[in-house]
Amino acid sequence: MRYISAAETAGRWGLSRRRVITLCNDGRIQDAQKVGATWIIPETAQKPADARVKSGRYIKKCEEKSNGSPN
To answer: What is the pTM of this model?
Structure first.
C-alpha cells in the first residue's frame, strides 16, 4: 500500500491540510497512520462524507433547550 502526506491529500480533496489532520485525529479517514508527528494516508483513501448538519434542526433543538431551561 502506498501512502501520501496530509498536505498532498488536502490538495487532492480540495481541503486544508489542517482539516485533513483533524479528520485523521477523529478517525474518519480509514487506515490513516501517525508516524512521529506526521500523518500518512493511503493513496486510495476516500474523502469522508460531510458530517455537518444541513437541515438546521440541530440549531432549533439547541434553541429549544436554552428557552426551556429553568434559568
So the answer is: 0.72
